[in-house]
Amino acid sequence: MTEQSAGPTAATPSSDLNARYGRAGRSRRPLVIGVLGVVVLAGLVWLVWAAWVQSNPPVRSELQGFTVVSPTSATATMKVDRNKSVEASCRLQAKAADFSIVGEVTVTIKADSPRHQTVAVTLTTQRSATSVVLVGCTTADQHRPH
Question: What is the pLDDT of residue 1?
Answer without folding.
Answer: 52
